[in-house]
Amino acid sequence: MSDFTDVAGLAGLAAAVTVVLLLFPKIASLSRLRQALLFASLFAVMLIPFGEMPLAAYLRGATGDLSITTLVLLWRVLMGVWFGWGTDESMNRRMLLMLVALAAVVLYPLALGWGYIDPYRLGYGDPLFVVVLMLIALAAWIWKYHLTVVCIALATCAWAIGVYESDNLWDYMLDPWVSLYALGAMAWQMKRKPGGASPAHIE
Question: At what angle do helices 68-83 and 32-47 cross, to 10 degrees?
């Protein structure tokens, strides 16, 4: 597995697993130095071959490559734990999750044939689709939804240089995991509002 796309996919999964493990309470209570050392160690273990493949490769066979959006959200969590970054940006994150949930609701059913159009095909380099994404990113930048701008920009750049095996831009922006998370977060938000409770911070 020496191809660049394989390395990128495995590194993304290794980083994701490591970030999730670092959120366990006992690990999160460690000092930053110990967390950093543990992060580096876990990341390396995920990429060490066990049998014919690294651990991350076995996971990749079940999940596929993670979208850039998923990785950005995970890294944001890690930076929040270590440095307190993004702890006051709940609206920023909520907007991104709303867009992800909306895109998932439209994309996946139509891509499975539940309609007369297939928006997934647009991800193969349709110029209009790219322009629309850039306009969304521009609007997000004007309204200071910087997390959305970062995700669209990084996903588009990664797609342009072929970071993953897929040559479809949708795969760089969405995956089933972040889609399910976004839908669940939006459902929880809607459930909390009618009861009069303060809106949940989707963090």
Answer: 150
Range of the domain at 38: 1-65
C-alpha distances (whole Å) from 53 to each of 24, 39, 66 are: 27, 21, 18
pTM recorded for the entire structure? 0.87
**Dist CA 22 CA 185 (whole Å):** 21
123: burial class by Cβ within 10 Å (0-12, 13-18, 19+)? buried
Q: Provide Rg for the chain, Cα atoms.
A: 18
If asked whether residues 172 and 74 sit together in one domain, one would say: yes
For residue 203, is it within any domain?
no
86, 200 contact by CB (below 8 A): no
For residues 80 and 156, membership in a common domain is answered with yes
The count of structural domains within the chain is 2
Q: What is the pLDDT of residues 155-192, one digit of tens each?
A: 999 999 999 999 999 999 999 999 999 999 999 888 87
pLDDT tens per residue, range 17-70: 998 888 888 887 888 888 889 989 999 999 999 888 999 999 999 899 999 999
Does residue 92 share a domain with residue 172? yes
- Residues 130 and 203: their CA atoms lie apart, in Å, by 29
